[in-house]
């Protein structure tokens, strides 16, 4: 009998440990209602404060809020920046951007330790799935990591494991976890957009997917990050007491093998860059922003841009000249047409695949020719396939109704099929010739 009693007590103790015990003073339930805040934020978003008498949702300069860019579609988001002297505050993490909530929705943390975002009628729209896993408290840490911790301070859940389009200082992408950043659809629409940056065993690669086929256009596709890519800000000389430069870097996992993958240095700044983030933008760009609190105005500064005059040409950004444009020396200079070049505007449009995929057999396909131009995938990551002939390249595009044109490198006899055109890069020194359907 004593053995059975001991066994029963052990089982009871195990159950009590497994059940989260959030003390009453750490529990909360807040309602998305009331007046909007007064200050300017990214995307022109309006926002509401989350307030509880027993808990803080602020860790300077980070603040958890409800925000929206369209009426009655709220996202639980982390904002970075202070109202004092700041021209605009930035959104650096979203909980539910693909599943917004409405008015009078609630955010709650109950005794069982599950953080839940629900509609007014109780329908759960987002949660941490941490019920009965030992959570005892909620906290926002100094670098913007939102955590649910157990009684020993160990993280049961953390927002750093769930990036959306942004990496904060110390945050990572992981091959065996969340391995990508996905752009917003637009500034007004925060749902998943067509651009992604994916970490795999080969490298960290940018893709655009506007027609069902991902196209590579940037990143570090042949760099071994050893399974983890961490955005970090490091001091140039840690042993100095006086100010020193700070470096924005992408760090691989610690070296455990003979792999040669090393740290990627993005930029160096001459002030404290501890509060920084790396953003994969709705236009497919990759930029870093740094917050410097002592500044009296414009505390946020763009501190790195992948597509720029100092890194990779802006003409390599697929969206730089809109859906279709001719780019030269970081400028959109023309709109290609069957009748020649016209003045560029954001209204320039490539041919629609629908006119080639109508199902009518025997319809002739025509092309117009542009000499000395490369596709945005060409100079950086993709030279095309070959060697092959220009006629074989044309035949391949003829057969594929989703092909909007092909690029043929006459010197190397390589063929690049283009299901999406975007920005075309002028290069008089290349043997690449574009043939665009019309």
TrEMBL record:
Q: From the UniProt annotation, give the residues forming the signal peptide.
A: 1-20
Gene3D superfamilies, sorted:
Bulb-type lectin domain (2.90.10.10)
Please name the SMART domains in this protein's record.
Answer: B_lectin
> Can you give the residue ranges of the Bulb-type lectin domain?
40-161
Q: Check the record and name the Pfam families matching this protein.
A: B_lectin (PF01453)
> Signal: present as a keyword of the record?
yes
Concerning InterPro entries, the annotation shows: Bulb-type_lectin_dom (IPR001480), Bulb-type_lectin_dom_sf (IPR036426), SLSG/EP1 (IPR035446)
Entry keywords, A to Z: Disulfide bond, Glycoprotein, Signal
Q: Which PANTHER family match?
A: BULB-TYPE LECTIN DOMAIN-CONTAINING PROTEIN, EP1-LIKE GLYCOPROTEIN 2
Q: What is this protein called?
A: EP1-like glycoprotein 2
- The species this protein belongs to is Cardamine amara subsp. amara
Classification of source organism: Eukaryota, Viridiplantae, Streptophyta, Embryophyta, Tracheophyta
